Automatic annotation (TrEMBL):
A molecular function GO annotation: sequence-specific DNA binding
Span of domain Zn(2)-C6 fungal-type: 35-57
Keywords assigned by UniProt, alphabetized: DNA-binding, Metal-binding, Nucleus, Transcription, Transcription regulation, Zinc
Localization terms from the record: Nucleus
Short name of one Pfam family: Zn_clus
Coarse class of the protein's main subcellular location: nucleus
GO CC annotation, single: nucleus
A GO BP annotation: positive regulation of transcription by RNA polymerase II
Phylogenetic placement of the source organism: Eukaryota, Fungi, Dikarya, Ascomycota, Pezizomycotina
InterPro entries reported in the protein's UniProt record: Yeast_MetPath_Reg (IPR052202), Zn2-C6_fun-type_DNA-bd_sf (IPR036864), Zn2Cys6_DnaBD (IPR001138)
Origin: domain of life: Eukaryota
Protein name: Zn(2)-C6 fungal-type domain-containing protein
């Protein structure tokens, strides 16, 4: 957190901060210190007066803004992250060398590592989209011709300026309409708010209690952001609601109770809908720390357990509901993040049928790219622990997108493993257990994942984040492109799926900087696929 800005110091603004009483005491107390909150680009006090926080640089004898300090810190963390990536790639042998042993330029796969925002632990390893893009380029057999093309010109991408609206433009009718859309599209997926909040008539919004007003404003901001994907006129409404809600964030979150958890989850959903701020990873960390502080990471079987605040831990339907939302949010971000997560499925409740796909995905990913490294060793996936995990994936009857993502993890294994006696299948064997069946399952899962993502994005059948939609579209599209080139499937049977992938990436590329890079990679892959098909004919 940055030090106190000049304006707050001169006005002696006090911010409530919860500090521990002692090193040995689990209890905490509420104190007031002279310190700004962590909102950017200005603290809540300066933001009300539409000014930036400034700090006195004693070395340069000049006043600098909070944004300037934040930019410097982000650059430092980005450089540290890049050094960690190069160190990991070097130790894993992924750097290409000449016959004389001289290393060549770094592989372009690092261009597709999604870096989170500020934070100490930025290195998240190569994400699933970057790994699948890498293997797709290998299959297209023109990797050496694409290294220069894979570099994305980030300077050419910028988010448009959002006009500022007066808060009076949020009429009761607009609030009612946005809450209605939130209840229809977002609430079924992320059950955070009570039904009574969503049935608010929009009258006398300024007179409501701060917590209730914050929840209504955040719901309106999320709904307006989702509408802005195809109707940009709603973006100023979303921005106005979000900035208004900023006034109430600090006291609500510092209370460390169920309402603070709701507030954090609402902020998370909004950052998923509008990831331009790049603070979703920090919010996830805040949510996990709040869970630990409330004792929600413990099972409800031991009624005599207490949380850090000294409160008894007992079964609470609200806690169950909110923790389910947090697990769903983490699950929707798993394809682009390799960071260790708070294993909520293992530490809070016994695994249910809804938790099995998430657990299976984590185990398969770890076996393929983590400790098992089956993608590097070239071992057969139908022998040993991998075979058990594949059998477990077969038993999942759910057709939800999270279940389809499981099969796409195995694409690299199918490409790099040379068929052996264990996994070989005869051409006419359609139902047996082997590599041929596994390939068909991957292609089927990719097509269904594209179809479901496209339907939600274009037909208003639910909520999908630009981050989630772009990552699912890219990994599915690359899987189908790989299948076409490897002759697992024909081009004609999946031409429509390639179009769906392009439409999804085109829709969301202007709402997320990573989506812009994903679209650039997909355009290169489709060009290479077109060239490959022309050479084949």
């Amino acid at each position: 957190m940055l030090p106190t800005c000049t304006r707050c110091r001169s006005r002696r603004i006090k911010v409530p901060i919860t500090l521990p009483l002692s090193q040995s005491s689990p209890n905490s107390r509420l104190t007031h210190i002279f310190q700004c909150d962590s909102l950017l680009p200005a603290c809540a006090n300066c933001s009300k007066h539409d000014v930036e926080c400034t700090f006195r640089d004693e070395a340069l004898q000049v006043d600098v803004t909070r944004c300037y300090l934040k930019t410097l810190q982000d650059k430092i963390e980005k450089l540290n992250s890049e050094l960690a990536i190069k160190s990991q790639i070097s130790s894993s042998g992924l750097i290409e060398t000449t016959p004389d042993g001289i290393p060549t330029k770094p592989s372009s796969i690092s261009s597709f590592v999604l870096m989170p925002g500020s934070g100490k632990d930025l290195y998240i390893d190569l994400s699933l989209p970057s790994r699948i893009v890498e293997v797709t380029l290998e299959v297209l057999s023109q990797r050496q011709e694409t290294d220069d093309k894979m570099t994305v010109d980030e300077q050419s991408f910028s988010f448009p300026d959002i006009p500022r609206l007066d808060r009076s433009t949020l009429t009761p009718g607009a609030v009612r309409g946005l809450l209605k859309d939130y209840c229809r599209l977002v609430h079924p997926k992320y059950d955070i708010l009570d039904v009574g909040i969503l049935s608010y008539d929009g009258m006398h919004l300024r007179k409501l209690p701060e917590t209730r007003r914050f929840q209504i404003l955040m719901a309106c901001a999320i709904s307006a952001t989702q509408k802005s994907y195809r109707e940009p006129i709603w973006r100023p409404f979303a921005n106005t609601c979000r900035e208004w809600a900023n006034d109430f964030i600090a006291p609500i979150i510092s209370s460390a109770d169920a309402d603070s958890m709701k507030a954090i989850l609402l902020l998370l959903v909004y950052e998923m809908a509008d990831p331009t701020r790049g603070i979703i990873w920090e919010l996830l960390d805040v949510a996990r720390r709040t869970c630990l502080q409330l004792g929600w990471n413990r099972t409800a079987s031991s009624s005599n357990e207490t949380s850090i605040n000294g409160e008894a831990v007992s079964h609470d339907p609200m806690r169950t509901r909110l923790m389910r939302v947090l697990r769903d949010i983490e699950g929707s971000l798993r394809t682009i993040s390799n960071r260790p997560t708070l294993s909520i499925e293992d530490t809070i409740y016994n695994a249910t049928e809804e938790d099995i796909p998430s657990s299976t995905y984590r185990k398969l990913f770890r076996a393929t790219y983590g400790t098992g490294r089956t993608n590097d060793t070239g071992s057969c996936p139908f022998v040993g622990p991998m075979s058990v995990l594949i059998d477990g994936a077969d038993r999942i009857a759910d057709t939800a997108p999270a279940s389809q993502e499981i099969w796409l993890v195995l694409l690299v294994t199918c490409v790099r493993h040379k068929q052996c006696v264990t996994c070989y299948q005869e051409p006419d064997d359609q139902q047996g257990k082997g590599m041929r069946t596994l390939r068909l399952k991957i292609v089927k899962a990719a097509a269904e994942l594209l179809s479901s993502t496209h339907r939600v994005a274009f037909n208003d059948e639910g909520f999908v984040s630009p981050i989630t939609a772009c990552s699912r579209a890219l990994i599915s599209g690359c899987s189908i492109a790989t299948a076409i080139v490897k002759r697992w499937k024909t081009f004609q049977s999946h031409f429509r799926d390639l179009i769906l992938c392009s439409e999804i990436l085109t829709l969301f590329c202007s709402h997320w900087k990573g989506g812009h890079s994903y679209l650039h990679a997909w355009q290169i892959i489709t060009d290479l696929l077109h060239t490959n098909m022309k050479q084949r004919n």
